[in-house]
Amino acid sequence: MNISVVIPNYNGQDLLKKNLPKVHDAVGDAEIIVVDDASVDGSLEALDSFKAEIKVIKNEKNLGFSSAANKGIKEAKGEIIILLNTDVIPEKDFLPPLLNHFQDANVFAVGCMDKSIENGEIILRGRGIGQWRRGFLVHSRGDVNKMNTLWVNGGSGAFRKSIWDKFGGFNELYNPFYWEDIDLSYRALKSGYKIVFEPKSVVVHEHEKGAIKKKFSFFRVKETAYRNQFIFAWKNATDLDLYLLHLLWLPYHVMKAIIRRDLAFFMGFFKAFILLPQIIKCSFKDQKLFVLKDKDVVFPFRKENN
What we know:
Order of helices and strands: EHEHEHEEHEEEEEHHEHHHHHHH
Low-confidence stretches: none
Structural class: alpha/beta
Shape: globular
Strand content: 15-25%
Largest sheet: 9 strands, mixed
């Protein structure tokens, strides 16, 4: 089974120097592709020292995570794509348990156990759960002792390239970041494919060293999260009751944002609304592959959400 490792990078000079050798040790002779998303630090210079071991793709302008990942995976030769953030360090034996699941031809993606370093503590992440509540998909961290998951993290997961290509990869409406991996996983589940969480495949994730917190303000991050939450709901919800619930609950969310003086909510809504023609176009295209209803996708996680 041929694999390729794709690593989107933006201003990750120090992380590349520190983590690329560890990635190389963990994946052996696998193809490694780094997509530099128009970094303005010394990333390209740092990558020069790895020329014999990796392929570098350079973006002339900063496009965002979805576009960088899509570009790298388009060039990848492997049947299975390992997608890693620059702030993720795979443990040496992470690969075999991850790849074992792809013996099942219906498996699209497998997620890793994410030892997330947050405020000096290790939080075990990697398995996601969620439910439709008050007109939106609300997601959260799930119990890592189970193997079903609502999504596979785009910063530490493996994806079958043939199915990735079928879905067109990450939807670039979500640029510069957030929700693109939940969206792709949800579309795959709704189309009848399997996604899995593998607790034996372990990576260390130094979240606080990633590009998002360095480049974007807290307000911009919050605004983008709101915008993409709207995009996801408008694009993926096809059950009629979810449409109606979204419309019925929207005044409640608006009033709540007014009371909190949450300008990011209104900016996120406005920016999503501008994209509505593109969202509708994507929705119609995606629906051609759907075989399940929204309630069927989230049903396995119902008890955990309560």
